[in-house]
């Protein structure tokens, strides 16, 4: 188990280093002068040069890359020139919105998808299976921003039971959670549709295995065969999708946060790109990459827990 986790850690560190090179390189080749965008087209040469020097843009790209990388290692993500604040402070302010939103969405997605997938697999080939997977296919095809607008129209404009947007802060937890319900549903339903189809496919394959027939031959109850034996052995592809979904929910909420005017990480990245605040973009993207690697590591450890063969290197 220790060797297995160590290998995954080494792979994660190498991936993080390669990602830092890609992120820095992509932002370097983007057109436009950050100093001119920040000061405006009418800024004088002296002001532009002073700002470039303050931002370090007058130094060679390799020097700036290694300075930025050294800052990442020590936890210093730099200072935003737009907000005049350390990037890590901006991330902490926005994470109190994005992280609960991602966790609530993941919980809703999992709570819906796994029972639906198990139900469909247990009735494979029947009308109920066809209807369930057809509904899931519709859920996959629906854009989450369109679903978000529909939910706002029904529950905020029509019924007036939930807020249409904004975030009041965690001083009032009830209002804060209410403001995250519609965004969470908008994110969770399409992801639940994907996860339900994966769960159903994995369960159908597992239900055809010899050990399932043996469990049935021993007279075990159908529910016990499904949930204790079949589902556990079908969890590896499900865990893979869960890890990817959490990463997507944490990093891919730009559209939803803009629809609901939520001050989260997605909206911060969107605003930083518009303002060419490269320090913010680089820092936030690298934090999201690091979170993705940590989540994948957690998923790999869950693999080893679910499948003992991985712990002994098979």
UniProtKB/TrEMBL annotation:
Annotated localization: Cell membrane
UniProtKB keywords: Cell membrane, Membrane, Transmembrane, Transmembrane helix, Transport
Transmembrane stretches, start-end: 9-30, 99-121, 133-156, 176-196, 234-256, 284-306
GO CC annotation: plasma membrane
Mode of membrane association: Multi-pass membrane protein
Alphabetized CDD domains for the sequence: TM_PBP2 (cd06261)
GO MF, any single term: dipeptide transmembrane transporter activity
Principal cellular location given in the protein's record: membrane
Domain ABC transmembrane type-1: 95-298
Annotated family: Belongs to the binding-protein-dependent transport system permease family.
Protein name, UniProt field: Peptide ABC transporter
High-level lineage: Bacteria, Pseudomonadati, Pseudomonadota, Alphaproteobacteria, Hyphomicrobiales
């Amino acid at each position: 188990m220790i060797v297995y986790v160590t290998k995954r850690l080494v792979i994660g560190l190498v991936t993080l280093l390669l990602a830092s090179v890609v992120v820095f390189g992509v932002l370097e080749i983007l057109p436009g002068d950050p100093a001119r965008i920040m000061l405006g087209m009418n800024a004088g040469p002296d002001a532009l040069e002073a700002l470039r020097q303050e931002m370090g843009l007058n130094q060679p790209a390799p020097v700036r890359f290694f300075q930025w990388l050294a800052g990442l290692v020590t936890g210093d993500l730099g200072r935003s020139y737009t907000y005049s604040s350390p990037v890590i402070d901006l991330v902490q302010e926005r994470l109190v919105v994005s992280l609960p939103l991602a966790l609530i969405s993941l919980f809703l997605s999992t709570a819906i998808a796994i029972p639906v997938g198990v139900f469909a697999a247990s009735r494979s080939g029947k009308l109920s299976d066809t209807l369930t997977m057809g509904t899931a296919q519709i859920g996959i095809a629906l854009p989450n921003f369109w679903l978000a607008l529909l939910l706002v129209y029904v529950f905020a404009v029509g019924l007036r039971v939930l807020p249409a947007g904004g975030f009041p802060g965690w001083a009032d937890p009830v209002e804060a959670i209410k403001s995250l319900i519609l965004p969470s549903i908008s994110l969770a339903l399409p992801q639940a549709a994907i996860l339900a189809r994966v769960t159903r496919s994995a369960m159908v394959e597992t239900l055809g295995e010899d050990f399932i027939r043996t469990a049935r031959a021993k007279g075990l109850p159908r529910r016990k065969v499904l949930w204790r034996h079949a589902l556990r052995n079908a969890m590896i592809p499900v865990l893979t999708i869960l890890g990817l979904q959490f990463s997507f929910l944490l990093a891919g909420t730009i559209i939803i946060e803009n629809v609901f005017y939520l001050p989260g990480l997605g909206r911060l990245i969107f605003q930083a790109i518009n303002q060419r605040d490269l320090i913010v973009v680089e820092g936030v993207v690298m934090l999201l990459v690091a979170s993705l690697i940590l989540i994948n590591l957690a998923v790999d450890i869950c693999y080893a827990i679910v499948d003992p063969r991985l712990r002994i290197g098979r």
